[in-house]
Amino acid sequence: MPTSRIDDFVRDFAFGHGAYPATLMYRGYRYSTCTSINHVVCHGMPGDRLLKEATSSYRCDLHRRGLVWRSSDVAIPPIARKAERLIE
Predict the structure, then answer these.
(1) In whole angstroms, how large is the CA radius of gyration of the chain?
(2) Strand, coil or helix: 39
(3) Distances (CA, A) of 11 to 30, 35, 43, 51
(4) What's the pLDDT band for 66 if we cut at 50, 70, 90?
């Protein structure tokens, strides 16, 4: 699954539930999530790269009813023990 598809899902889910992705159009950023895969430290942009076995970080901030909800960090198993220790 490409990271752009996850970004589309997050945007559709947010709008469908009365929320707004905090990163969407922030200083011109056109995505609903920040996607970092393996060696990308943070704030990567969603695109056509396919997720396979990887250590990923998704930053998803949603505005709803005056609050900001934040979620992040995902691992797609199986992952190497070295990557697992880094997450811990």
Answers:
(1) 14
(2) coil
(3) 11, 14, 17, 19
(4) confident
Residues 3/37, Cβ–Cβ less than 8 Å: yes
Q: How is residue 50 written in tokens?
A: 């396919």
Scanning the structure block, which residue is given the tokens 């396919």?
A: 50
Q: pTM for the full model?
A: 0.72
59 by Cβ neighbours in 10 Å (0-12 / 13-18 / 19+) ranks as middle
Secondary structure (3-state) at 13: helix
Which bin fits 33, alpha (ψ -120 to 50), beta or left (φ > 0)?
beta
